[in-house]
Amino acid sequence: FMAPVIQALARPRMMPPNRSSSWMIDRGQFVLLDRRGRASQPFAAVDESGNFVLPASVNRVNIDVGAWRRPDYIVHAEKDPGLLVIQIEPIPKFCRMIRTNATRSPASSRIWTLCAAIGTQQFGSHASFHLSSYLDAQCASLRAFRVEAGLNGVEKACVNESRRITVPVVPLIVLLERLTKPVTWLKIDAQGTDLDVALSGGHQLWRKVRQLELEMQDVEAGAKIIMYEGAPLLSDVVPAMCTLGFQIQGCVWNNWWVKEKNCIFDRIRFPGDGRPPSHRRRGLLLSKEDRTRFARCSSAPPEAMATFSRVHGGACCPLSSRPLNQSSSAALRVAR
Predict the structure, then answer these.
(1) What pTM was computed for the model?
(2) Residues with Cβ < 8 Å from 316, sequence gap 6 or more?
(3) What pLDDT, on the 0 to 100 scale, is given for residue 113?
(4) For tag attachment on the chain, is the N or C end more exposed, with fewer CB atoms within 10 Å?
């Protein structure tokens, strides 16, 4: 009769580093916590080492940060039995929507849904998420809106806050260090916090992620159409990503009116890494102007990779003329 008791005690039951956390591992499950520290929802099973228990067929992972209400990657999981898709969305109603869609898929065991925001410690374990009514909350962000942008060409409803909700914030490194398979694609659409999401991956970002997409505005510092307070611009993101060990490959316009681009970054590669990822997306080319701007962004893995530093010498892009805000700079130092 003691066997069930012994088995229960043998299951991993690890608390997070401190009480003010958005997650914990309890009885073999990775669980999100609400602001009061109560378990709100399980995310995935973990083994005795704390790693996620992946389906046997899985050999790679795609992560969609800011999935909104569109199950964009479900079809890929259905076509490829080796693919695990992790879709992440902080707005509860949209997260429930994509989770429901996932449960109806024949690949449901390989489509995981996390109802949380991803970000650095600067946002805390739980943070205010700023919502606006424009296009069903497509402009929502962890960063505060710049109302001034609405007076200078940005849709006013996009940057006029309608309400705030409190959401759990999970650093990306918490997920990456528990994945035992490579992340071949990381899509980040976090409305002004894309670099923060990448930085929250710390040293695991370069070790686990091969290719990622970030969205940001390509304007000069101080431009009136900057939509979010303290949001890094393209000129900030490229050198920061290079320092993390990622090289820009190209950008496409996402929204010309607000000068917003989607840019692809590849992990800087070394001998023995195998074939580089392909770039078959239409229009994914560096313009002549951008090629000149980013010509020096060509080499340097994270500083922690001392061995690789000796193999792959050189310097990253010079930092932009406008330094990163204090919190992003601190996060970058930690990530290195």
Answers:
(1) 0.79
(2) 239, 242, 243, 296, 297, 298, 299, 300
(3) 94
(4) N
